[in-house]
């Protein structure tokens, strides 16, 4: 039995080493942190907020983000957040999204990074385009940078400094 446990421990150690080596060799290993939020564009902010309230979630009030052309509502979950987005102003990028997606839908995901400046340099070094020259202050009051969806598997990614 002891020999069997020893073989099992060696196999598990090898599996762990292989999986961590695979992740560590990824070009963005160590850069990306936890998922901060998933953003959903919605044509009816009140209806969407009430949906999550009815499920017992803590839901913030709508906050206008004039510089980004959106209203935001945050839905707090135990391990992350959902950000509801609704157009604010005539040139809202969310209105353009809703023109193509009448019922709304997932707009972007936000991933935390330790240092936004290091992250921006790293993604640019890897030929991943950013949407903007320098980080802006996002809805959480922290620096953010969006990455071009064509360079990110079709997903708009927001990097946010921890």
From TrEMBL:
Enzyme superclass (EC): isomerase
Domain of life: Eukaryota
Any matching Pfam family: Glyoxalase_4
Start and end residues of each VOC domain: 34-162
UniProt keyword list: Cobalt, Isomerase, Metal-binding
EC number: 5.1.99.1
GO terms for MF: metal ion binding; methylmalonyl-CoA epimerase activity
SUPFAM superfamilies: Glyoxalase/Bleomycin resistance protein/Dihydroxybiphenyl dioxygenase (SSF54593)
GO cellular component, one term: mitochondrion
Protein's UniProt keywords contain RNA-binding: no
Reactions this protein catalyses: (R)-methylmalonyl-CoA = (S)-methylmalonyl-CoA
InterPro entries recorded: Glyas_Bleomycin-R_OHBP_Dase, MeMalonyl-CoA_epimerase, MMCE/EMCE_epimerase, VOC_core
Protein name: Methylmalonyl-CoA epimerase, mitochondrial
Origin organism lineage: Eukaryota, Metazoa, Ecdysozoa, Nematoda, Chromadorea
């Amino acid at each position: 039995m002891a020999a069997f446990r020893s073989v099992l421990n060696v196999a598990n150690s090898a599996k762990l080493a292989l999986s961590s080596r695979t992740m560590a060799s990824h070009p963005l290993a160590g850069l990306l942190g936890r998922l901060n939020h998933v953003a959903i564009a919605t044509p009816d902010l009140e209806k969407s907020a009430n949906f999550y309230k009815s499920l017992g979630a803590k839901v913030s009030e709508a906050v206008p983000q004039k510089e980004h052309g959106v209203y935001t509502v945050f839905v707090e979950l135990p391990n992350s957040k959902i950000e509801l987005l609704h157009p604010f102003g005539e040139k809202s990028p969310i209105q353009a999204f809703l023109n193509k997606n009448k019922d709304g839908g997932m707009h972007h995901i936000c991933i935390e990074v330790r240092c936004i400046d290091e992250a921006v340099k790293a993604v640019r070094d890897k030929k991943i385009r950013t949407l903007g020259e320098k980080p802006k202050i996002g809805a959480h009051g922290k620096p953010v940078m969006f990455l071009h969806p064509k360079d990110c598997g079709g997903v708009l990614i927001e990097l946010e400094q921890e």
